[in-house]
Design brief:
Elements: H1 7-12, H2 17-44, H3 52-71, H4 73-81, H5 87-93, H6 95-116, H7 136-163, H8 168-197, H9 205-226, H10 231-263
Subcellular location: Membrane
Pfam families: PQ-loop
Membrane topology: Multi-pass membrane protein
C-alpha cells in the first residue's frame, strides 16, 4: 500500500537513542503499572468494588485505541518501512504501536480477572447499610460485549484496509473519536462505585499512582511521534489521565480516613461497615461451580 523506499523510511533508519530509550521505559512502565491491579484481584480472590461498566468502557476504549493506531496512515507507513529496515530500526519505529498494544492486553487481563474472580455471594452487611452488588449475569454480558466488539472492530478494519484503503484515515479517526468518547466516561462508573462504597476494595491505588502521571508522559511521547495527525491516538490518554487522577484522589482520601480510624483504635472497617480488608471477600467463581 505504501512504498517502503521513501524519506520517511530513511528517517526511521536513524532512530534517536534518547527517544528509543524513553519509549522502552514507557512500554515497561505501562506493563508494570497494571501488575498491582492484577495482583490485587488475584490476592483478594475477588473483583468486588470494580464497576462492570468501568471494565466494559475501558476494554472497548482500549480496543478502539489499538485498532486506531494500527490503521493510522503513519503506522501503515512505519509497517511498510520494516520491509527494508533492520530489525532494530523496525522495532524502534513500531514502539508507539507496541505501547498501545501492551496497554490493551493489560486491560483485557483485568476483564478476564474481573469475570474469573467475580464475587458470587454478597457479604453480609448491617440492615442500615445495605449493599447491592452487580449480578454475575451483568459481568458475563460485559465480557461477551467486549469480545463481540473486538471481533467486529478488527473485521471492519481488515475489510477497509484491504478493500477500500482510501477510507482508512477516516476509519482511524472514527475509532479514535469513539475510543476518546468511551475513555471520557470510562472512569465515571468507577468513580460512582468507589464513592458509593466509600472504599477502594479491589481497585489498586498503586496502579493509579503509576498510571496517572505516566499517562501524561505517554501523551507527550505519542504526540511527539505522531504529531497533530495522531491527535485521535494520544487524545484518549489525555482524557483518561485527568479522570484517573480524580479517582486516585478519592481513593487516597478513603484509605487515609480508614488508616486514621485504625490509628485511633477504632474497628478496622471500610466505608460499608465490613470488618477487615480480607474478611468480606466474595466467593471465587470457580470455587462455586457445580
Amino acid at each position: 500500500m505504501y512504498n517502503a523506499t521513501t524519506p520517511h523510511c530513511a528517517d526511521l533508519s536513524s532512530p534517536s537513542y534518547v527517544n528509543f530509550t524513553l519509549s522502552i521505559l514507557i512500554l515497561l512502565g505501562i506493563l508494570i503499572s497494571y501488575l498491582p491491579q492484577h495482583h490485587r484481584i488475584i490476592s483478594r480472590r475477588s473483583s468486588e468494588g470494580i464497576s462492570p461498566y468501568f471494565v466494559l468502557l475501558g476494554t472497548t476504549s482500549g480496543t478502539c485505541a489499538f485498532a486506531n493506531i494500527l490503521t493510522l496512515p503513519a503506522s501503515q507507513r512505519d509497517l511498510a518501512c520494516c520491509r527494508e529496515l533492520s530489525g532494530f530500526d523496525c522495532a524502534a519505529g513500531l514502539l508507539g504501536i507496541a505501547q498501545v498494544g501492551v496497554q490493551w492486553v493489560c486491560f483485557t487481563v483485568i476483564l478476564l480477572l474481573f469475570l474469573l474472580f467475580f464475587p458470587t455471594a454478597t457479604p453480609l452487611a448491617p440492615p442500615s447499610q445495605p449493599t447491592k452488588q452487580p449480578s454475575f449475569r451483568t459481568a458475563f454480558i460485559v465480557f461477551g460485549t467486549c469480545i463481540l466488539h473486538l471481533i467486529l472492530v478488527f473485521i471492519v478494519s481488515a475489510i477497509i484496509l484491504y478493500r477500500v484503503p482510501s477510507h482508512l484515515t477516516a476509519w482511524a479517526h472514527t475509532l479514535g473519536i469513539l475510543g476518546t468518547c468511551l475513555a471520557a466516561v470510562q472512569f465515571l462508573p468507577q468513580i460512582y462505585t468507589t464513592w458509593k462504597l466509600q472504599a477502594v476494595e479491589s481497585l489498586s491505588i498503586p496502579m493509579m499512582c503509576i498510571q496517572t502521571p505516566g499517562s501524561f508522559v505517554w501523551v507527550g511521547s505519542l504526540a511527539a511521534r505522531f504529531g497533530w495527525e495522531g491527535w485521535s491516538t494520544w487524545g484518549i490518554y489525555l482524557v483518561t489521565g485527568v479522570l484517573q487522577g480524580c479517582l486516585l484522589g478519592m481513593g487516597i482520601t478513603f484509605e487515609v480516613r480508614k488508616w486514621k480510624k485504625r490509628k485511633q483504635g477504632g474497628e478496622d472497617v471500610d466505608g460499608n461497615g465490613h470488618a477487615g480488608d480480607d474478611d468480606h471477600e466474595g466467593t471465587r467463581l470457580l470455587d462455586n461451580e457445580r
